[in-house]
Structures are given as C-alpha cells and as structure tokens.
Amino acid sequence: MKHLKYLLAGSLLLLSTLASAASLQLQLKSDPANPGHPTMGDWMHFNSVITNSGQQPIEGLVAWISLVQVTPGKEQPMDLEDWSAHKAVTGTALAPGASLQTQWPMRLIQSGDYRVVISTTDRNNKTVFTSPTLQFHVAQKPVVESTRILPVALGIPLLIGGLLGTQRFRHRHRSA
User: Fold this and answer.
1) Which ranges of the chain have pLDDT less than 70?
2) Which domain holds residue 93?
3) How many independent structural domains does the chain possess?
4) Which of 85, 100, 107, 145 has the smallest number of CB atoms closer than 10 Å to its CB?
C-alpha cells in the first residue's frame, strides 16, 4: 500500500511535468522570398513562431537557431559566426496564448546539405523544445570564374607591352 502511494505520487508528478513541458509549440518555415535553388553567398531567412499554449506565463525565454551539415562524410554542427546568422532571442516573456515571431537571416557560405532547427527553453523549465527541422541544399558557386579572370590575365600584359612599345616608338622617332 505504501509503494502504491509513492507510485501514485510519482505518476502525478510526471503528469504535471509533462503538462508543463507541452506548453510551448514551435513552427519553422523558410521565407517564401528565399531563392528556389540557393547558392553560396545567398541569404536565406527562416521564420519561427513560438507559442505559449500553456496556462502559465513563460518568463526568461531563450530561443536560438542551430545549423547542422548533413552532407555524407562531412556531418557536423556549423559555427554560426561564420554564417552571419542571428544567433538568439533572449529575455522574452510570453503570456498564455501569446506568440513570438522571429526571422532568422543566414548567409550561405559553404555548399552542401544542411538542416536548421530552432530550440527554446526558459529559466524555470529544464526542458528544451525544438521545432521541426528544415533541410536545404546549398549549391557550389565558382569562386574564380574564368570569364572574369581571362580578360585581366591577358589584358594586363598586352596593355603593358603596348605602352612600352608606344614609348619606344616615340623615343626612336624623336631621336631620328
């Protein structure tokens, strides 16, 4: 009987924890203005909506974006400092039923396959909530394009040779 009492108390505690843990809902969408086939150097914007679906206000909300490369053989979390991403929203309070909308801009600096996710927690809850992930592919963009380099590579020596040839021609005709 004593064990049943502890089991019941533990079950109620677990249920109350689960009820409070289910108080945040996260949505994540890619901005429709994003390019259809993003390439290196493009900017993408991700839009998140965090909703307090519980009965209690949430204080000290912290939300952040994470990026993971999932290209076969290169799986790793990415350092967002390199990607110029908006890293976190902090100190926000959400009343019951209230929502927080945030746009997360990110400059795409490396080709490959990626997943992005928004995570959030608050100062009173030990649970981290995550949004569904969005997967996207960043296409390689040639850093050196031959159509831009060839005119310079051929043009500069020809220009220098032409200037030197013109000076010699003028110098010879003045001397003569």
Assistant:
1) 1-22, 34-35, 143-146, 148, 175-176
2) 22-161
3) 1
4) 145
Q: Is residue 66 part of a domain?
A: yes
Q: What is the pLDDT of residues 8-18, one digit of tens each?
A: 444 434 334 44
- What CATH number has the domain bearing residue 152? 2.60.40.10
Q: Name the percent of the chain in helix, strand, coil, to the closest 5.
A: 30, 40, 35
Domain contains 1: no
Per-residue model confidence (pLDDT) at position 159: 83
For residues 132 and 161, the answer to whether their CB atoms sit within 8 Å is no
Is residue 46 exposed (0-12), middle (13-18) or buried (19+ Cβ within 10 Å)? buried
Rounded to the nearest 5°, which phi and psi values hold at 164? -65, -40
In a domain, 11, yes or no: no
Q: What predicted TM-score, i.e. pTM, was given to this entire model?
A: 0.67
148 within domain boundaries: yes
Judge whether 123 and 59 are in contact, CB under 8 Å.
yes
pLDDT tens track for 84-107: 777 788 878 899 999 999 999 999
